[in-house]
Here is the input.
Amino acid sequence: MVVQDVVFWILSVMAVCAALGVVLVKDLFRAALLLIVVFMAVAGFFVLLSAEFLAVVQVLIYVGAIAILIIFAVMLTRDVQHGNLPNRLQIPAAVFASLLLAVLVTVAVDTKWDFLPSEQQERAELVQTSSVTTLSGDVLTDSGVTSPDDQAEVQGSGLADLLIGDYVLPFEVVSVLLLAALIGALALVRPDPGTGRG
Amino acid sequence: MSFEAFLIVAAILFCIGLFGALARRNVLVVLMSIELMFNAVNVTLVAMAKYLAPAALQDDISSVLTGQVFAVFIVTVAAAEIALGLGIVFAMYRTNESVDLTEATQLRH
Amino acid sequence: MSCVLGPDNILHDTLLFRVIYDFVGHLLPCWLSYIVAGGVIMMLLVNGVLMGAGLFSWVERRLIGRFHNRIGPNRWGPFGMLQPMADVVKLIFKEDLTPAGADRIVFMIVPVAMLAPVVLMMAVVPFAKDTALANLNVGVLYVLAVTSITSVAIFMAGWASNNRYAMFGASRGVAILISYEVPVVMSLLGVVLVAGSMSMADVVSAQTIPFLLVQPLAFFVFFVGTSAELNRTPFDLAEAESEIIAGYHIEYSGVKFALIQAAEFGAVLTSSAVMVTLFLSGWSGPLSSYLGWVWFLMKIGVLAFVFSWVRATFPRLRIDQLLAFAWKFLLPISIINLFATALEVYFLRDGAGTLDTTDLWIMAGINFGVAFGSLLIFGTLIKEKVRPARPITGVTLSSIEVS
Here is the structure.
């Protein structure tokens, strides 16, 4: 447990410093690179929270796609010399953000959270492991889930089953959204047929 | 590595992102700040999925994954958002020759 | 004292880590032995990949020499085998230049960022039974995610060098990486469907017959996509020597250049290892419980030879041909493959959702038909789509804007 604590604190410091860098650094390219550091740290958080699938998806989509697109945009717009200027709202924004931070921290510390009961903890852990892989009956028996009904319940509960079972409507809507975004982005950047400018 | 620690780190990330989105002039930095906020929310959701008991726990053990499902949706929406956002940035750069948000005032008149 | 790794630890399933951890745990306090075991594993990984890259650089130079009907490096050591060592010594003693106006910090990180994905990719590949350094349950996806870091490294190299050619090379390289990522992911989905798992160890044990036979189209797409992502000759536009000198690593010299080269040669080996695991049934073969790693290394050798063969044979493509090839040829056939596989799995699987060997043979038969059909159809179609370059008229050297 100690090691995981140390990893958590290293990741937290990394994430917060890099996030500050994203907002404050003058050079846009470096800001984009620091954003990648934040994404990696968040992927680390996901591993600590036993959501390996999300961690990998985080690296694949955020680092492999979103960060690359942002760097492309930084290079194509070539406004790096101008850099990262503040607008007139800087002081009100800082005040507002720190007030919100105070509120959020108070809520996080003061609320009486409804924690997962400890007898369910191990079961939940198994479900989270089985969310991306099929656990065999032997593994489950070793972990103390012996009755066939319980085993079937743990084996049958996966991220994919939830996605195309209970959450199939949002899933389909999201895929339509992606298609719409694809077409929209293409329409936005298409060269103007009238002027031929691109 | 308690639950509250995750929430606090996520809150800090979110507020940094909020500050960046409100106080910066470059539209790319604003987009990056929005991505920061998305990430903070994802961390919160996954932490809650791990530590907290969902209301449907008694019926269905797989409801402990609900937070992760939401996080998957947020990742997808973030991908769609960045594709459209950058499309708009390029369109704006083409008409304005600049990515400065304070100069994007055509719609005001 | 001895330390025990809790079952909730994510490294619990890693046999090698546990063995080292138990061994060191007798001598050191637990937290220290945790770090030491991790360090030992990292040492093994990094040095294994670097040694392999060195060896492969010699093998490839000899092989290409043979293909070109010349001898290749043969001076130092038996058959010139110590040539990589001589290269490294030479590169270490060269001056390590940083160009004026470069972004120094980013410039320095690039070689490490190039090498890191190559090394990390090796972590999930099982060399023999139960010997993967980390048996992740999302192994296939992990490999894809880790390879996508390379494009960031290429961008960093192009930007930080403050050189126009480096920038050209980087934008070409990233365009290629992004385009070829899509068909590669699509082709792997077919494998994951048949295997029923994303863990590399499960994919190996699911291969009662090699997936090369069950998924020929996926193997083709993955092989082509990977050699494009590795920037090797038919697709090496990002570092075309005769066009943009060396692309994104034009400004690198000395040790940094050595690391980037090592990353490129190592990437061939690690990609071959991934391909062996996913398509050539990994470590399995006769006597595989003892000789698994021998089979594994032999299969890697065969694939690396094919990579060198391709490199020595084909001429370089043009950038628009390259991107058209990815979007108009590889992507459709990978989608066809995924569709066919999904249908076959749906109809052939038994009640528990598994496929036995007969099913796999049936799938192999159907998929070979699908593969030949779609390659034939799309091969004819793409010939009409990719036109030869028009001769450039009316452009003189002075009219090209030099900014």
Q: What stands out?
A: Residues 399-403 of chain C have pLDDT under 50 and may be disordered. Residues 1-93 of chain C form one domain. Chain C has two domains: 1-93, 98-385.
